[in-house]
Specification:
Blueprint: E1 2-7, H1 12-27, E2 35-40, E3 52-53, H2 54-62, H3 65-79, E4 90-91, H4 95-108, H5 110-125, H6 134-143, H7 148-156, H8 161-173, E5 181-184, E6 188-191, H9 196-208, E7 229-230, E8 233-234
Parallel strand pairs: 1-2
Antiparallel strand pairs: 1-5, 3-4, 5-6, 7-8
Helix pairs in contact: 1-9, 4-5, 5-6, 6-7
Length: 236
């Protein structure tokens, strides 16, 4: 079974969703036959190259409710073992990070890509790392098992740029408008950071219904346009 997870490094619900899906996968009897691949999605594709404080950016975009948004995610994240630090977090462009994830998948495999994805989420949300900075990304990648020189050369050039842009376009063609969105076998989609039990049920159902007809990812329920990072998913 192949599961493609469309998510952004800067999406707090993507971090929670990943942890909950990992828990479900650990409980799934057929876990050894599941390949999990992360696909890119950018909540703020026009974010500047120079990082800025997350709190200030969120307040400018959403006003007074931004504090409650962060507090809600922090509380839920704590239950999943995630230590959000929004005071240290930086608003950054995530395109380079998605290129790096593409490198990890194509040259190291899905398992290493998963390790890197976890490391990038932690770097962004817990450690105050600028995930739009090439040097910082290189350090995160090396700690995740990638070769330092290969990563440095890759990020200094344009490798992977066209491929990541095509994957972003594919997400739009599928109708994905909020993340995380989990696409199973290219047919079934589940949107949002669902609880582990829900993910486990989906894994079991897909395993038993792989002959069912295709269902567009657009069929997944979408949050209201103004919901921002509401419970379960981020839509910006």
């Amino acid at each position: 079974m192949k599961v493609e997870i469309y998510s952004d490094i800067a999406c707090p619900w993507c971090y929670i969703g990943k942890r909950r899906f990992d828990q479900a996968l650990d409980r799934f009897a057929g876990r050894d036959d599941v390949e999990v691949v992360f696909r890119p999605y950018q909540l703020v594709p026009d974010a500047p190259a120079t990082a800025s404080p997350h709190r200030a950016w969120l307040a400018e975009r959403y006003g007074p409710q931004s504090v409650a948004m962060d507090d809600r995610v922090t509380e839920l994240g704590r239950a999943e073992g995630i230590a959000y630090d929004f005071d240290a977090a930086l608003h950054a462009n995530t395109f380079l990070g998605h290129r790096l994830l593409h490198l990890a998948e194509t040259e190291y495999g899905a398992a290493v890509q998963g390790v890197l994805k976890e490391a990038l989420l932690k770097a962004h949300f817990s450690d105050g790392v600028d995930v739009g900075d090439r040097a910082a990304l290189t350090e995160v990648a090396v700690a995740a098992g990638l070769d330092r020189q290969r990563v440095a050369d890759y990020l200094a050039g344009e490798e992977g740029t066209a491929e990541v842009r095509e994957q972003l376009a594919e997400g739009r063609r599928l109708g994905i408008s909020a993340v995380p969105t989990f696409v199973f076998e290219g047919q079934w989609a589940v949107q949002g950071g669902q609880d582990a039990e829900t993910f486990l049920n989906v894994l079991e159902q897909v395993a038993s219904q792989t002959s069912a007809g295709p269902t567009s990812a657009a069929a997944a329920a979408s949050p209201d346009e103004d919901a921002a990072c509401a419970d379960g998913a981020c839509a910006i």
